[in-house]
Amino acid sequence: MTTLPSLPRVTLGRSALQLTPIMLGTMTFGEQVDEPTAHAILDRALALGIDAIDTAEMYAVPARRETFGATETIIGRWFAARPGVRRKVVLATKVAGPSRGMDWVRGGAMDLTPQAIVQACEDSLRRLRTDVIDLYQIHWPNRNAPTFGALYLDPAQDRAQTSILTQLQALDGLVRAGKVRHIGLSNETPWGVCEFLRLAEQHGLARIVSTQNAYALTNRVPDNGLDEVLHHGGVSLLAYSPLAFGALTGKYDADGFDPAMAAPGRLALFESMRRQRWGRPEALAAARRYNALAREHGLSPAQMALAFVYGNWRVASTIIGVTSVAQLEQAVAAWGTTLSPELLAAIDAVRWTLRDPAQ
Predict the structure, then answer these.
(1) Mean pLDDT over residues 154-160, rounded?
(2) FRET pair for 172, CA 20 to 30 Å: which of 132, 231, 278, 294?
């Protein structure tokens, strides 16, 4: 049976919040993963020593009206069925930013107001069956910003919206009310992180402790300046999608996107996800290069991809999303894998040529 080595505790930002350097991502719960399986994964994660769970109000993914809030509800029922477990877990969730075509989230509002932040938090607390959220995050920026695969800022798309200061004041109010212990961001840019820090300092408001951004071999965007901001600003990186939606496991190297494959993943099952950054032809071509490199060095593609993120100085904790207990155990087993200087140099050589195709 897989066991997790004794893990160091990591501290988020300049706070007292500590957690394991592996977090369990849950966005598949309620779509690919049914409730009994989700509860089995949660049980096994806790048994393996993982004490942090990340979710969001908009989950399950791909987002649908019918599954909005389903993941939080599943987690809440898990807590309710296991008295005492909530105290052992660092619980993180997120309030959705302005609508990305989801008219079932606050009526498709294009602005994240203070009232919406407070109500979303109340709704998450109810679904999660808890009286406090350890880490409450804004899922994506409220302002016009290049996110989710967009390469460039288009100033023509700027619009009037709730300011960062006003959002920060709403989050600070949740902290003061005891409903949230710490706050963070997600899918944020270097400027956004700097502005949240500046305004918190200027106005004596709660300080962000983390930002949750994609980080994988095919998407090392945090290396391009965000890392400097986080390092000097005392903000931690929570890395999501370290396996690039499964592309860095090798499962798509030969079988393509056939949903009938032995272990179909999100890119095979959902056409909407194939149209996103992880399913771009150039991103898949880069994944094949990295997967081949792993095999040349006697590692599985997933083992190398996870080890790269686990061991990176930029990353405080890595969010692993799985659809089975077996996948969870495989991801855990990669902890402690050391990549040689020669292999790291080879990885950088691939990136020098292909850059970040899943940006």
Answers:
(1) 95
(2) 231
Collapsing DSSP to helix, strand or coil, 192 comes out as: helix
Average pLDDT over residues 319-325: 96
Domain count, the chain: 1
Q: In 10 A of CB 43, how many CB atoms?
A: 14
Does residue 316 lie within any of the structural domains?
yes
Q: How far apart are CA 13 and CA 2, in angstroms?
A: 31
N-to-C CA span, the chain? 36
Residue 295 lies in a domain: no
What CATH number should be reported for the domain holding residue 190? 3.20.20.100
Rounded Cα distance, 282 and 174, in Å: 43
pTM reported for the whole predicted model: 0.95
In a domain, 279, yes or no: no
Measured distance CA(296)–CA(350) in Å, rounded: 14
Q: Which listed residue (59, 240, 252, 290) is catalytic?
A: 59
The domain in which residue 15 lies consists of 10-251+310-337
- Asked if residue 298 is part of any domain, the answer here is no
290 is catalytic: no
Output the pLDDT for position 269: 61
In which element (H, E) is residue 127 found?
A: helix 114-128
CA distances from 210 to 12, 15, 125, 311, 355 (A): 6, 10, 20, 18, 25
